[in-house]
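Human: If only I could read C-alpha cells as easily as an amino acid sequence. Underneath my words sits a plain record pairing an amino acid chain with its C-alpha cells. Take your time, and here it is.
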Amino acid sequence: MEPLVKVEDVSVIYNEGEGIREVTALKNINIEIYPEEFVIFFGPSGCGKSTLLNAVAGLERVARGRVMVAGKDLAKLTDEEMATYHRHEMGFIFQAYNLIPTLTVGENIALPQMFDGVSRPKYMAAANSLSERFGIGEHSKKIPSELSGGQQQRVGIARALINNPAIILADEPTGNLDSKNVRI
C-alpha cells in the first residue's frame, strides 16, 4: 500500500540566505502517512508542528525535499491544481480560525463549495447540516465576530469537512473548545 502523505527530506528555512535572520524551521523531515491513519504531531511550542502541517497542506514552500500527497508532488502543481487540492483532497482546521469576517457563519462553512460553483441552495443546505451537527446552527446568519472563540473554531472545523476530503489537517483544533465540544 502506498502512503497517502509522503514527506521526503523536507527542510523549511525562513529568510534563507539572510544571515542572522535565517531560521531553519524543519530540517530533513521524513514521514509516511497511510490511508485511514490518525497521526498526531506533538512537541513544545516553536518546534515546527504548524510548519509541517502547512507544508503538507501546500501552504508553505519547502526549501529542500519533497511533499507528496495522493501521489502528487505539491511543488509541481499548478495554481489551479493546488486550488483543487485545497478544496477537495485536504481540509485544514486552522489554529487561528481564518474565518472571513464579512461572511456569515453559514457562508464561511460553505466557502469551499462556493469556489466550486455549487449552487447557493445546495451549499447552504450542506453548511446548515454541518452547523447543526456542531451545535452552531442557531448562529448561521451571524458574522464571526459575534461568536465566542469555541464557536468560531467549530465553524472552522465544519468548513474543513464540507467537501468530505480524504485528508484532514488540524492545527490545535480543540484549543478553544470546552470539554463537551471536544468530544463532538
